[in-house]
Every structure is written in structure tokens, then in C-alpha cells.
Write a structure and sequence with these properties.
It is found in: Cell outer membrane. The protein is mainly beta. The protein has one domain (10-213, 234-856): TonB-dependent receptor, beta-barrel domain (Maltoporin, Chain A, Beta Barrel). 8% of the residues lie in helices and 48% in strands. The strands form eight sheets. It has a 22-stranded antiparallel beta barrel. Strands 1-6-7-4-5 form a five-stranded mixed β-sheet. Strands 2-3 form a two-stranded antiparallel sheet.
Length: 857
């Protein structure tokens, strides 16, 4: 049985989409509430990758994954990024810890590229990026991405993941692909509540049984450990959410979603074996709690609200609006300061410890995310018209708790500080038109549009004591300011904006019944760096019914992020013979950066090529295999901290007071290539319920093909070995998703297994780029791991569903980091109490058990 194409006139299809009632079965492209799971993914009409209104997944000339609402909800997490990590093989969402604000706003990637190289849309409109710039040792270092965890899964009808370059169609950021989140508009509703917690045994970590007091002058205490691995019961998570959809008149819709999440922190740190107190024989050494760090998920309270509405204006026109409000109060921990730590010495009190038993500073993140879109669409003279205005902003305010400013002395310093904040905003106006045209052969669609966009970025200074240099600042003490996160000083304040104007044309035509061709071109002008022109050519050939070949080639770009151009954070050091100087991260236009050789950032430029095979000959089965090759020039990276005698000489010659600095540059060219395999099979009915099988595989390889050098700095100094390998090998080399869904009313089950490939960690102290992967003493490779999730569901009555499940059912952990001297290399003592890598692609929290109750109405 071959798949039969169904075509509608484009204007009729769009009119149906715009003006039909809110009942689910009347909304093309939305999965009907009464028929979820009945339609195969390949039969669904898509709205991403083409502006035609009759294109299905199976007919697409480029690879697209469609994730249903059902697949999102039948899991134990309420975080959209974690859900996609389980369902899309080329999607990666590590869960780092001890990374400042990134603990509360974690980045995700597609096809191993940067978080800011994937474009996120909501209902086809560009979503604003977060204000956070990831800087502290996480995947995506130096980038700012979209916070998709502000979007409740219950608000989502489906997610379309376009795995192909699409800058010529959608503009900046679409190098790796596009994630288009379609919101619900159907009538009806669901209310649900879930509770879960981690019930886990940490691999390779043991609790302390006893401690002998320190007898040697500088030695660590003798510790005896338990024989059984440490057990943890934490991370309690409550989630309450509801979605309600009602009709508005005969053809309108009004759909709202509200969600509240309360997550307690997790802690996967091990005992700290180091000496804690200065005195020899101090008995407190035997009683202090050596689980003194907090390494894992931070505390988080989230409230998210989404609205999606439309009203019939008559004459085929619709007024639509959708928007969101999100509030997240989270915190993450820094490194524990031991009682004998120099950063805990109060020189206003003779150098005695300010916190007698040490302290664990906390970074508190207060995040407010707001977005709104209003538009009108309809048909004018045969053209399908869509005019919209879009605004979004992300606001992040930092506070630091349980800490102090040692330079002020213990009498003056507060223990809680407002450290300042970041602001990111986006405003855009879009006009899109589309219509079918008759070229004398097959069906043809032409689309065109224009966009104006304004982007704004701000840094807000913290309170004075958060960054102040006090009288007890000495050259041999820690930097001044609130410890763990010094506040933004007035010198770092910025309020910068830019505008861009764009126009595009897209032609999608069936040259014959066998061949479809898509051509697109886009011109864009940015006020800060000028013009860019990009194009795309894609084609699909189906020589045999049910077997199709497809391919694409496109150019793309990503405009330099506003944060990459203007972010600044500095600290003041007292350098002998020089005095007080600033060190830190500087904007490219700052005197220090310019003196060291910085230049205005240019856009990243890409060349995307792809080729694939689509197989749909067997009823219920679809298999796609796609190869991709993505060449990116002038990738924007953050330099290493440039320091040394030559740096000081350069800065002095330029009349700049400083000793070091880092800044963003167009530093490397890369090539990423890989393969995606996606298969879906609806098992024929044999009387035991509905079975659906899914499988996905991604293999990805990134290489740095060229590096930039300037001002006499070598490549080793500008972008050294650790960050180079984080870029190329810091994410899984391959990933396999397997899934089984079974539904036999009133019971159902979902079983998923994900295999994450190896991740390379250049832990060794060798920084030379000449030393290959794994050749430096101390290098570590995290081995592949399987993570299995299981959920069982039961409906005692049609409107009520009860579910129990386990994420990471088998309690898998990443490899424990090595401790001590191995092969002549002595690993950091930090590995003793921070036992797992934050680059683990599935986190390091262990088994999560949960239960959920849902009521449909």
C-alpha cells in the first residue's frame, strides 16, 4: 500500500486554518483531541520548512520531526528541553551544575552546534532569546539561547523540528535548524498534578564512616568510608498544570495554560576529604559535615502562563494573539569555602574565620520572561496575508546569599547582596504573503515577506557593596566583591540596541508528480554590521511510489549576539608594582580588548548540504535517512584569559590599566557532518491494543578546520585545547532513541531507551593544540550509557488518567571521574567531592520516580 498524496488549494487550506471553529477536528495541522495517535506522523501537515499549506511530513524536501502532545505528556518531566532530549536523537540537553546562572537557565543544542545556532519559533513566530550568556564551563560556552523550559508541555499541541539550514527562510540563528512549537487551540481541557523525587544510589561514591583528627601540620585527615555506595532521596518536585480551551463565537478560539512547578535541589557531591580547619588535632575535623558542596539541580520555583486566541473578523479575516508570562525563582551553589580558606579570613578581626565552619555561597536567579504576539491574517485578491507584531523580553536579576565581601571586613560586609542583572528584548513586525500560482505544471506556491526587528541588551549594576573594593583588600587575598559572584559594577552598565530589515522570497513547485523543488532567497540588513544575502535550493524526487530521494543546499548566517558584543564583567586585582587593575571579560570595543587586538564582530557564515532517503512503502512504517554537512566560517568564540608579561606590555603601551582580559572573536572555522535515521512503525491491529514503535539515531562529528591568530598570540593562547575539545567533542558522538507506546483502554504504557555516546573531557593540564585527543595525561572519555524510562497508565473512568513511572529506571550514572594519581597524572582533588562531569548528556541525578493524575474535561 503506497502513501497517497492529498492536495488542497493553498488558499482554501489557509482559510480553513484561520476561520474554522476551535473544535480540534477543524484545525488543520493540529492533532485532533479525539484522534491523537490515529494519524501517522508522516501524514501530518507541517507548517515549518515551507510556507505551502498542504505539505505533509512525508512530502517534505527536508527532514522534519513531528513530536506530538501525547509523546510530550507521557513522560515524567515537565521541562520541555528534557522531553526533547528523550525524543530527538540530534538534540542534546546536559544539566550542568556549579555554573552560576546557567544552573537555573540551561542551554540545549541541535546537531552538536551551539545553542544560539538553532532558531526557536512559537506558532511560526521568532521567540526571543534569554539574557543569560553561558560562560562557566558548560556546553554552549559563550552563547545565549532560548529558554524553552518557560513553555509548559501542556500548552503544546506539537513540536516540529526542522533539521536543516533555514536562514534564507527565517533569518539569523537557523544554521542548525528550526524548532517550531505549535500551541494548542482546541476546545476542552485537562488538569493534572504530578509528584516525583529521586530515589538513587550514587555510583562510586561512599559516605564517611569515621574521621581521625589531623595530627600532621599540613596533612589531610584520615577518613574511613562506608562499604556501601551512598544513597540519596531528594529533588522532590511538584507540578500543577491546567489547559482550558473554549470557543469564541462560531469560528474563534481561546486557549490558556497555567503551570506551577516546585523543585527541591538535588545533591550528588561526595565527602570532601580535605583538611577543613587550620589547627592541628582540631576535633571539629571529626564531626564537620563533609558533604559540604551542593552539586546537582538547583532549587527552582516556576510559574508559567500561556495564552493562544483568535477571533473571526468576517470576510475571511482572523485576529489572533498569543503570549506568555513566566517567573522562575531559582538558586545554585558555588564552591564551598572551608573554615581555613583564605577567602574566609576576616582581617578586620585578626584574620579569624568569618564563618567558623566555612560557608557555601548561593547564587539566586530571579528570571522574568514575557512575550506577546498580535496579528491579522486572511485572504486579499487571492493572496494569503499575515501581518503581525511580536515582542519578547527576558530579565534576569542576581542575588548572592550566605556569602560576604572579605575586602570590607566582617563588621561592614553584608551576607546578602543584589548583584545586578541582565535584560534582553526583541520587537519585530512581520508581513508574510503566499498564494498558489499556475505555471502550467503541477502545484506551485509562491511566498514573500518582510521583517523589521529591534534587539536590545542591558546590564544593570548591582548594589555598591557587591562589587566594592574595601580597605582589607590585599594582593595575596581573594578578589573583592560578593564572593562567588561579584556584582556588576557601574563601569559594566550598558544599554545597546540594533535594528535589522529583511525581505525574502520562497517558491515551492511540483515540476512533475515525481519531482518537487523549493527555492528561497533572503536579504537582510543589520545596523551594526551591514548586509547579508542567503539562498536555499531543495528538491525531492519520488521515482517509485513510497521511496523518495531528497537533498538541499543552502547558505546561512548568524548575527553576533548582543551579549557577545556588549557583555562585560570585571573584577579588581591589586598587582604588585602596578596597583589596582581590572581583569575579566570585556566588550570587543573596550580599550583593553582593542589594545589586545579585538575587532568588531562579523556574522557567522554557513554552507549547509544535505541528502536523504524516505521510505514509506510498507503500511504504517516510515524510515528516513539523512546525511548533513555544515561548514561554518567565522564562528564566534570567547578567547582564553590573555595574560603574561607581553600582555602587560601591550596594555601599558596603549595606556590601559590592566593585566589580562578575554573577549569574543570570530575565532574558528568548523565543519560538522553526520547522519540522522528516524523510523516510526504503527503495528497492525491484532487485538491487543495499539502499538507504536519509534527509533532514532544520530551520529555527529565536528572538526575545527581553521583558527584565527592576531597580535602575536598563538592559537594555543587564543582558544586552547580544553575549550577546543569542548566545542568539538564535548557532546555525544552518537545517540540512539528507542520507544514503545502501547494503548489498550483502559491501560497504557510507554517504554523509552536512550543510548548516549561517548563524550571527551580534556582534563589534563596540557594546553597545546598539537596534543591529540586522549594523548595528554589525565584526559578522560565518558563511556556510552543506556538510560531507560518506563511509564504505566490507567483510566478508571474515561475522564481520569493515573500514571506511575520512572525516569532512568536502572539508575544509570556517567562514569565517575578519576581520583588520585593515575598513570603519573594527579587528578584534581575536586573530583573526590564533585564525582561526575557536568558535560554528561543525561545529567547525573539518577533514578526519578513519579506519579501523575490527569483529568480531562
Amino acid at each position: 500500500m503506497s502513501f497517497k498524496r492529498t492536495r488542497l488549494p493553498a488558499s482554501a487550506a489557509l482559510a480553513a486554518l484561520l476561520v474554522q471553529p476551535a473544535a480540534a477536528q477543524d484545525v488543520p495541522g493540529e492533532t485532533p483531541a479525539s484522534e491523537q495517535g490515529e494519524e501517522t506522523p508522516q501524514q501530518q501537515i507541517i507548517v515549518t520548512g515551507t510556507r505551502r499549506t498542504d505539505r505533509t511530513v512525508a512530502e517534505s524536501a527536508v527532514p522534519i520531526d513531528v513530536i506530538s502532545n501525547e509523546a510530550l505528556l507521557n513522560q515524567g518531566s515537565a521541562e520541555t528541553n528534557r522531553l526533547l532530549n528523550n525524543l530527538v536523537p540530534s538534540f542534546n540537553f546536559p544539566q550542568p551544575s556549579l555554573t552560576d546562572g546557567t544552573d537555573s537557565l540551561r542551554p540545549a543544542t541541535l546537531r552538536g552546534l551551539s545553542p544560539d545556532q538553532v532558531l526557536v519559533l512559537v506558532n511560526g513566530k521568532r521567540r526571543h532569546i534569554s539574557s543569560l550568556l553561558n560562560l562557566n564551563g558548560s556546553v554552549g560556552r559563550g552563547s545565549a539561547g532560548v529558554d524553552m523550559n518557560t513553555i509548559p508541555p501542556l500548552a503544546i499541541d506539537r513540536i516540529e523540528v526542522l533539521r536543516d539550514g533555514a536562514a534564507s527562510q527565517y533569518g539569523s540563528d537557523a544554521i542548525a535548524g528550526v524548532i517550531n512549537i505549535q500551541l494548542k487551540r482546541r476546545e476542552g481541557g485537562r488538569a493534572q498534578a504530578s509528584y516525583g523525587k529521586y530515589v538513587t544510589t550514587m555510583k562510586g561514591v561512599y559516605d564517611v564512616a569515621s574521621v581521625s583528627p589531623t595530627t600532621a601540620g599540613t596533612g589531610d585527615p584520615a577518613i574511613v568510608y562506608e562499604t556501601e555506595e551512598s544513597r540519596r532521596r531528594d529533588g522532590e518536585t511538584w507540578t500543577f498544570a491546567t489547559n482550558i480551551g473554549v470557543p469564541v463565537g462560531e469560528a474563534g478560539y481561546f486557549n490558556v495554560t497555567a503551570e506551577y512547578k516546585d523543585r527541591s535541589p538535588t545533591n550528588r557531591s561526595g565527602p570532601d576529604p580535605r583538611r577543613q580547619y587550620a589547627g592541628t588535632g582540631d576535633l571539629r575535623e571529626t564531626t564537620i559535615d563533609r558533604i559540604n558542596h551542593r552539586f546537582g539541580d538547583g532549587r527552582s520555583q516556576d510559574f508559567n502562563f500561556f495564552l493562544n486566541a483568535g477571533a473571526d473578523l468576517g470576510n475571511g479575516f482572523e485576529l489572533y494573539q498569543f503570549g506568555s508570562f513566566g517567573q522562575r525563582d531559582g538558586n545554585g551553589a558555588g564552591f564551598f569555602r572551608r573554615p581555613n580558606d583564605a577567602r574566609n579570613a576576616d582581617w578586620a578581626n585578626g584574620g579569624r574565620p568569618y564563618y567558623p565552619d566555612g560557608f557555601l555561597p548561593l547564587i539566586v536567579s530571579d528570571i522574568t520572561d514575557v512575550a506577546g504576539v498580535i496579528g491579522i491574517r486572511g485572504t486579499v485578491a487571492g493572496w494569503n496575508l499575515d501581518l503581525s507584531a511580536n515582542y519578547g523580553s527576558n530579565r534576569l536579576d542576581y542575588s548572592v546569599e550566605n556569602t560576604w565581601n572579605a575586602s570590607l571586613g566582617g563588621i561592614v560586609s553584608p551576607r546578602r547582596f543584589y548583584a545586578g542583572g541582565l535584560r534582553s528584548g526583541q520587537t519585530s513586525v512581520n508581513l508574510d504573503v503566499q498564494r498558489p500560482i499556475d505555471l502550467g505544471f503541477g502545484d506551485t506556491s509562491i511566498a514573500a515577506g518582510a521583517e523589521w526587528r529591534n534587539e536590545n541588551y542591558k546590564i544593570v549594576a548591582g548594589e555598591r557593596t557587591s562589587y566594592e573594593v574595601g580597605p582589607y583588600f590585599f594582593s595575596n587575598s581573594s578578589a573583592p566583591g560578593a564572593q562567588v559572584f561579584p556584582g556588576f559594577a557601574p563601569s559594566t552598565r550598558v544599554d545597546a540596541s540594533r535594528d535589522s530589515f529583511a525581505g525574502y522570497v520562497e517558491l515551492d513547485t511540483d515540476l512533475t508528480d515525481l519531482l518537487n523543488v523549493q527555492v528561497a532567497g533572503r536579504y537582510e540588513h543589520f545596523s551594526d554590521f551591514g548586509d547579508t544575502i542567503n539562498g536555499k535550493l531543495a528538491a525531492r524526487l519520488e521515482p517509485v511510489d513510497g521511496i523518495a530521494l531528497r537533498g538541499s543546499i543552502s547558505t546561512g548566517f548568524r548575527a553576533p549576539g548582543m551579549a557577545q558584543q556588549y557583555f562585560s564583567t570585571v573584577s579588581t586585582n591589586n598587582v604588585a608594582g602596578v596597583g589596582l587593575v581590572e581583569v575579566g571579560t570585556f566588550p570587543v570595543g573596550s580599550p583593553i580588548a582593542v589594545a589586545l587586538g579585538s575587532e568588531p564582530l562579523e556574522p557567522e557564515k554557513s554552507l549547509n548540504m544535505g541528502a536523504g532517503l524516505v521510505f514509506t512503502m510498507i503500511p504504517g512504517l516510515s524510515v528516513t535517512v539523512d546525511y548533513y554537512n555544515i561548514k561554518i566560517d567565522d564562528r564566534i568564540v570567547l578567547t582564553e584569559n590573555l595574560q603574561g608579561a607581553d600582555v602587560v606590555a601591550i596594555l601599558r603601551a596603549a595606556g590601559v590599566a590592566g593585566t589580562s582580559g578575554r573577549f569574543f572573536i570570530n575565532g574558528v572555522d568548523t565543519r560538522t557532518q553526520g547522519i540522522d535515521v528516524v523510523a516510526n512503525y504503527r503495528v497492525p491491529d491484532f487485538g491487543a491494543g495499539r502499538f507504536s514503535l519509534t527509533a532514532g539515531y544520530n551520529r555527529n562529528d565536528t572538526k575545527i578546520t581553521d583558527r584565527r591568530t592576531f597580535s602575536g598570540f598563538t592559537a594555543d593562547r587564543l582558544f586552547a585545547r580544553p575549550e577546543s575539545y569542548r566545542l568539538t567533542d564535548g557532546q555525544p558522538s552518537n545517540k540512539l532513541n528507542l520507544g514503545l507506546d502501547w494503548d489498550y483502554e483502559p491501560v497504557g504504557m510507554t517504554l523509552r531507551a536512550n543510548r548516549y555516546g561517548s563524550v571527551f573531557l580534556p582534563i589534563g593540564t596540557v594546553n597545546s593544540l598539537a596534543v591529540g585527543k586522549g594523548d595528554a595525561p589525565g584526559d578522560v572519555t565518558l563511556s556510552p550509557k543506556w538510560v531507560v524510562d518506563l511509564e504505566a497508565r490507567f483510566r478508571p473512568v474515561p475522564a481520569l488518567e493515573l500514571a506511575v513511572g520512572a525516569n532512568n529506571l536502572l539508575d544509570e550514572y556517567p562514569d565517575r571521574l578519576p581520583v588520585g594519581t593515575i598513570g603519573g597524572f594527579t587528578h584534581s582533588v575536586n573530583n573526590a567531592f564533585l564525582p561526575y562531569s557536568s558535560q554528561s548528556p543525561f545529567g547525573f541525578s539518577g533514578r526519578f520516580l513519579y506519579t501523575r493524575a490527569s483529568f480531562d474535561f
